[in-house]
Amino acid sequence: MISSRSRPVAGILSIILLVSCLYISSNLASQPGRDTPSYLNLVASLIFAFNIPILLSWIAFGIVGGIALTAFSILAVIFFDLRMGLYGYHVFTLPFLAAGFIGYAFLRAKDTLDQSYQLRSEKTDEEINLLMNGLKERNLSIQSLEEKLVRYSLLKGVSESLSMALALDDVNNLIVKESAEIIGKGGRVLLFLVDIEKQDLMLAAAKDESRVKEKKGDAFDHWILRNRKSLIIEDVTKEFRFPADDIEGAKPVFRSLIAQPLVSENKVIGILRMDSPREFEYTQDDLRLLDIISDLGAVAVQNAFLYSRTQELAIHDGLTGLAVRRYFMERFRNEIKRAARKKEELALLILDIDHFKEYNDKYGHAAGDLVLKHMAKTILGMVDEADVVGRYGGEELVVLLCGKSKKEAAAEAEKIRKAVKEKPFTLRRQETQLTVSIGMATYPEDAVSEEELIRIADGRLYKAKTEGRNRICSS
Prior knowledge:
59% helix, 13 helices, Beta-Lactamase, 5-stranded antiparallel beta sheet, alpha+beta, 5-stranded mixed beta sheet, Alpha-Beta Plaits
């Protein structure tokens, strides 16, 4: 195989040798003694020497150059033969034609080899490119698998973290935080929970909350709530499932989105969503990860609900929503200590629903529960936020008026008594008038311990009931 670099060398050598042969031929033509054997042998050798530049010319200049130089060499030899009077020696130019044929055959063979080499080279390059692309894809696949392995290994930590969190706010913040870290994409992370009473979405936690305008979710969140399906939007401007007004409203906020419903006991309890101002930010693999996180989050949220409910039941009565006796007594002791420390007053009211047994006997225990709930709602609407209302036992309710003097407490008790009496209450389609009897004791005027205050207030309640009910007894 002749390289492109060797052709100039062959061309230079061809010209040099041709000029040399012509020069020698010219000198021989001018010398005497042409009939001597040595002279004739030299001429024959010189003629054959022309084959070398001819062959080199085919290599260097190709077909056109090779034919031209072959023809020129034949004419030159014939010219010098005639000049030297050697009329028979020009037959030695026949090898020139052979050299020309050899050069031509060489070029054809060279072209064939070049083409074969080119094809093999192209095929080799193609195979190399295929191998390189395959290697690149394999490296990308390995990198993708490594990223997935890291992501999925982090899910174990998410599960452990969520299982340790009991407060609902902690669970919500953990879900948002872990979603952002595991999926590792920019943009917002929003967690909406369903308000059970209103059956509406409420924003529970968020990353980049400053950009959240719809605290109750937008059309995309409500679509997930209705359809109970995941959602992925690669470019909101090319979305066709939503009205044009919703798309136009979304474009300034985000361009791509993934979201998953949080499902517990076959009910949607929330929505976990990620969106970004860039198109094609999220992939199907991101959506699958979000699905796993949302499943873990749904369990954690439901557990937090149950824990909160358990805590609530430990503090508040399940029927009336008032503080249970144990919690009330704990608050009572703490408030007495605080009043003693700050030298303030407080008052204890014990209320008893008049003729409560008659409601149970006449309408049943369910009616009695309704009466208690009505009473609790009425009293809670009358007291201050700092005051404590509890269910002491049966139909007896207790109210702790913090920072109130005896005079102020008596006025508050009177307001409660009047409100109960005047507020209409319908039981089994019959309007019923409720009344209460109230016994009151104050700190530190009547006593300084919770036990003594309860004893005094309870005695005064008994006095109020024996004196005709529907009244307050404070002394």
